[in-house]
Amino acid sequence: MIEMNKGTAVRPLVKLARIIFVVLAWLFLAFIASQIFIAGLGLFVDSDNWELHKSLPQNFSFVPLVMLAAAFLGKLPVHIRWICLGLFLMVVAQFLTVIFSSDIGMLSALHPVIAMLLFWGSLTTVKHGHKWRK
Fold first, then answer.
1. What is the pLDDT of residues 71-124, one digit of tens each?
2. Tens digits of residue pLDDT in 89-99
3. Does residue 133 lie within any of the structural domains?
4. What is the domain extent for residue 38?
């Protein structure tokens, strides 16, 4: 079944890709929020929570790339594709600030700043993704 969207026909694959994009956008936002919460637990409650904070990103690091693919398949606007690529690059930067923290000195302090940008970017993808989910 083909639906109409803004006066044009929307193919089933495009619609499915848009739904997948929105689901992944929400999932990534929840992941970022939980990472911030777990970091707070590790800092203020029990340092054993750092292990979870360190291991969890390995499971979600490629979500922005899958979102990027869904954005292309769903024919989403170019700025959403750029945001997805930016999210992935920020995830890479997060890994790099941890891996090379002893080598880059004060630049490793960018880790929480990048976390804030990841939260903002993932919130933006959720907001914009809902506009195109039909």
1. 999 999 999 999 999 999 999 999 999 888 778 888 888 899 999 999 999 999
2. 999 999 999 88
3. no
4. 7-127
Does 84 map to a domain?
A: yes
Cα separation of 84 and 70, whole Å?
10
Total domains, the chain: 1
Q: Which two tokens stand for residue 88?
A: 């992935």
pTM listed for this prediction: 0.85
Task: Locate 89 and state its tokens.
Answer: 């690059």
What's the mean pLDDT when you consider all of the chain? Answer: 87
Enter the tokens of residue 74.
């769903």
The pLDDT tens digits of the residues spanning 8-52 come to 667 899 999 999 999 999 999 999 999 999 999 988 998 888 888
Is the residue at 1 inside a domain?
no
Report yes or no on 100 lying in a domain: yes
Question: Where do we find the tokens 């990103």?
Answer: 57
Spatial distance between the Cα atoms of 4 and 65, rounded to a whole number of angstroms: 28
Contacts with 20 (C-beta within 8 Å, 6 or more apart), sequence order: 66, 70, 74
